[in-house]
Structure formats: C-alpha cells, structure tokens
Amino acid sequence: MGMIEEVVTIELPVGENFRIQRCRYTSINEKPTKRISVVSGIHGDELEGQYVCFLLGQWLREHPEAIMGTIDIYPAINSLGIDSITRSVPFYDVDLNRTFPGSKNDFLPAQIADGVVNAMRGSDFAIDIHSSNIFLREIPQVRIAKAQEDVLVPLANLLNIDFVWVHDAVTVLESTFAHAMNTIGTKTLVVEMGVGMRLGKAYGHQLLDGLLNLMAHEGILDIEPLAVRFPIQSNVGEVAYLNATCPGLFVPVIEHCQVIEKGSLVGHIVSALSGEVLDEVIAPITGILFTIRAYPIVYEGSLLGRIFGEKQ
Amino acid sequence: MKRFDIVTLESPNRAPLRIEGFLFGEENTTGPSVAIVGAMSGDHINQLYVASGLVEYLRTKEEEGLIIGRILVIPAVNPYALNMGEKNWPLDKTDLNMMFPGYAQGETTQRIASRLFGELKGYDYGIILEGRRDQGMCLPYVKLMQSGYEDLECTKDLGLGFIHYRPHDPVETAMLQYNWQLWETKAFSIVFGKNGAIDQSTSNEVHTAIVRFLSKREMLNIPVFEGRKSNIVDPNRITLVKASRAGILISKVQCGTHIQKGAVLGKIIDALSGERLEKMISPCEGIVTCQYAHPLIFQNSIVFRIASVELCCQIDTKK
Questions:
Q1: What CATH number belongs to B237-312?
Q2: What is the domain extent for residue A192?
Q3: N or C: which end of chain B has fewer CB within 10 A?
Q4: Are A69 and A35 in contact (CB under 8 A)?
C-alpha cells in the first residue's frame, strides 16, 4: 500500500487548494536503494500517463515484497488542467513545461514548477510521460537531447518503447521539466505515446513492462528483468516531416503508425466545401510512420506525420 | 502611406489570415528605419490600440511631409486570435512570439513567424509593443535583453522612466526581440498596460515615447519635449511584495505611486467569509512599478513590485 502525500499545496482564491499528490511506495524491510519518480500530467490534456500510473500502482500493491527502493507516482502535476481538459495552467494559460525550474518568487505556474522540482529533488530517475497532444498520435518513444545521449540512451533502451529519438539541443527546451531534473542530477526520460485527451490501453501496458524492467535493472525492484523490445535508434536514420501544403480536412488512409514505402499514400487533404481533393500526402522516404495526425483540420504547415527511415 | 499584406494565409473555413503593415516614408530614403510590431497575442489590446493610433498619427505627419525616415507599423500580428478572444494561435494554441526566427518549411505558426521575420529583417530599429505575460499591470518600461547585440543607448531616447536590462532566459531565445537583435536590428520591447484592456493614460505615454524616439532618431521631423532620464534597473533587484494568502485583492495604490516604508499597499480578504486575511505593508520606500491586476489572487502571487533606488539601480551598464 502506497502512502499518499500532498507535496505541493498552494491556496486558491475561493475555498480550495491547488495540490499535487504523490503515492510513495518504499521498501518494507530494507533500507531503500534508489528512488524513481514516475510523472504524468504536466500537460492537462495528456492522459496516457494517468493509466500507466494506475497500472504501476496496481502492480506495486500486489507485489510489495519486490520493492527495494522508493517509487513515487505523480499522476497529475497540472491537476487543475487535467480535471478541466486544459493543456496549460488554467487562469494563466501558460505551458507548465516551459516554466521550469520555476521560482517561489514568480507567478503561479513558476511556483508549481518550483514545487515539483523540490518534491522530486534527490530522485535517481524520473520518467515524464506525455501523450503528444490532441493533434498527433505517437508510437511509444523517448526523446533525448543530444547532450544527454550517453547517459540516457542506455536507460531508454530498457523502457520497452519503440523508438529513441536523440535530437539536437534546442535552447527553449532548457525550460522543461526534463532539463531541470537532468541538471540537478536526476536522470530523466521523456516518454511520448498515444494522443491527447484519449487513453490507449495497449501502450499503457507496454510502458508498464518497460518501467518494471528499468526498475529491475536498477535494483529498485527485486524481480527478474523482463524481455522487452529494443527500440529503433534515431542515429541510424533520419526523420522526414510531412507538413500540409494547403488548408483543409486531412483524411488519412493509414489508421495507425506502421512501416510505409517511399511514394505510398499517407492520406488526402480535402475541401469539405467544394468536395475537391486538394492534395495527396505521399511518403517521401521508406520507413516507420511513427507520428500521424489525429486532428483532421489543417492549415498550411500543420504536421501530418513523421517518418523515420534510412538516411537518403 | 502604403498599406499592404505582409503575410497572408488561407484557412480551412475562415476568411484568410492577413497580417497588414503600414509603411511610411519615401521608398528610397537614406534615413534610418524602424519597424513597430503591435499585438502578437489576442489579449494585447492596449498594444493594438497604441499601434493603430501611431498609424493614424503618422498618416497625418506624412501628409505634412514630416516623415524623413522609413517607418513600418504592424498593428496586429495575430488578428485570428484577437477576433475570437483567444490569446494564442486559435488552432494549436501556440504563442506566435515563441516561434522566431520561424521556419519556412515548419508548422503553421513557424511559417507565419518566418514570413513576418523576413519582412522585419534589415530595419535599423525594432520596437515591440508587449503586454505582460502574467495577470499584472505596470508602468510602461523598456525590456532589453542582453543578447550581446543589444543597444542600450537608443532606448534612452524614449524617455520612459525605467529600462529593465537583463540577461535573457532560455525561453526568450524563441522570441522576436532576441532574434531581431541577432539579425543586427536594434530591437527592444516596451511592456505596458493590462492585458485585455485599454488604459488611456498609459497608452498616451507610450505613444508619446515612440514619437519622441522617432524624432530623436531622425525619422520624424518634429520638435518634441524631453522625456524622463531613464533609470536602468536590474529587475531581479526590484522588491517583491507577495500574497501570503489567496482571496480577493483590494489594492490601495496605483502603479507609479511613490510610497514610504510602512505604507499600506492593500489587503486580501477571504472570498467566502469576508474576513481580512492579510494587510500588505511596503517593506521599503520606492515606486510601485507593477501590481497584480485581477481581483482574485493566488497564494504566493506577486502583488506589488517596488523599485527602490538603493536596490535596483546597482547594474553594470558598460557596453
């Protein structure tokens, strides 16, 4: 049985407190080994992580004897947002994942960020689970900044995900939770999977196996490592982006992420008004379509998909 | 005056997006040039108002033959958001002022930023009219990031009371000011007002400051009164007065008020019981430069920012 604690509490104006709760599971008999934080809901419209938190909590309740370390589960960081289908911090309309490490002396989102960092300070690992957003559907993947490749890729390979994407450092990402935690010595992985405002059970179970495997490898759980899939590594290929060439309604001909041949049809952009097909969306390379658009209204430039394939 | 579309973008169902520019001055002038960017968010109404007021003012001055430089004004960068009470790009909620320098092959707002930035490059000066990024209201001040390419001297010609001069945050590297500076435009922001509202007095002050700048920098051939001698401040040294409790905020002072140490600034009352929860007292003598502007206040929110001479003017301005 985990211990539920409020780790961040900020009074709201009218008879309520903003709160972040965690459920902590810790070794019954042994001095805890390492500590891991499993985090979801930094964006209030991303719910896949909530299901993973449930599955992990359920597993830990059934296997308390296996717990050797400290496992903290934070299902809802932006708790106001999650309970109101709001991606950003309500009232302020600010992306919480652009306000880290935050500050006690700043506005509410920065105070929340500061509270989150302090609650998790000292964790050896953090797994930050995102669901893309309402526009895109993603296969389970971990994204890692180039500077942290050596430390984090071996860890990501344990997570039973499909793809590890190492990307160039972008300065703006220095204001993310993951960057803030990595900076203070917590090895933090960002998982993207599924689509915003929805819940995919299969992905949830897939990541649960990955979390258990990672914790087994790190001695946080006293279980045998699981047989997990080895993810595709982004350094062996390249990512091609599919952006809409015109506005309209995107109608995919592919329902799920899959391997796709160069020149094959991904979908159409159509006009609901005139009945015309405005554009055919064609795969520019052969590879795995690891991102596909889930929300059909598009403008010029809207991202329709991403394909990972061999370097051209 | 030349009125033209800087960016147009077709929409699936709405009328096309048009970002309009108003250009003043002779095409081949050798005089200095400035681009003034108004509302980038849908709640920057004050910024829209000041920019459109400048268009009307400059139109009359051009008819009188008084424009000697080249002046571009873009009152509204995000009319789609302004027209529906949204703050950001209405479809994906991205902040246009976090998309610079843009990417021509990227997402929609990256493309808009790229096309806009293509038009803005090459101007000698760049003025960004900014709203606040929180629930506050403030005295007009210059926000100047230290990118390594900034020009502090030119901002003094506005004659505003305060210049916030500070290093940039990581998140600000995606903003217009930072990128404009990197492309060798002497860019700075004027932050003022309260989002979603028009404050006439503040708007007049900003309008006057920009006219003064245009005159002093030889783009507008008119005499102007001198402004204030600007105080260059380190915003990290401004004294913060925070709310220890949440509730209804009753402020007793205005932005710009010179207050003494121990003066009553306001109070917070319980939103349900009406009980007074906190009486806010100034910890120092100084000028209230900014205050929280929503009647409901959160615990730990910054209620007042007070600039005091002793603290906030300790800054190295050698450039």
A1: 2.40.50.100
A2: 3-233
A3: C
A4: yes
- CA–centroid distance for A286 within its chain: 26
Tell me A92's DSSP state: T
Domain tally, chain A: 2
pTM here is: 0.91
∠ CA B12-B18-B21, rounded to 5°: 170
Amino acid at B79: P
Give how far the C-alpha of residue B216 lies from the chain's centroid of Cα atoms, to the nearest Å: 20
- pLDDT tens digits for chain B (319 residues)? 999 999 999 999 999 999 999 999 987 888 999 999 999 999 999 999 999 999 999 999 999 999 999 999 999 999 999 999 999 999 999 999 999 999 999 999 999 999 999 999 999 999 999 999 888 999 999 999 999 999 999 999 999 999 999 999 888 999 999 999 999 999 999 999 999 999 999 999 999 999 999 999 999 999 999 999 999 998 878 999 999 999 999 999 999 999 999 999 999 999 999 999 999 999 999 999 999 999 999 988 899 999 987 776 555 444 3
Answer whether A301 sits within 8 Å of B246, measured CB to CB. Answer: no
User: Which two three-digit tokens encode residue B50?
Assistant: 């000041």
* B2-232 CATH fold: Aminopeptidase (3.40.630)
Residue of B nearest to A100 (CA): B171
A93: left (phi over 0), alpha (psi -120 to 50) or beta: left
Pair A159, A210: CB distance under 8 Å: yes
Residues of chain B with CATH 3.40.630.10: 2-232
Chain B, 147 to 206: residues with Cβ < 8 Å from chain A are 169-171, 173-174
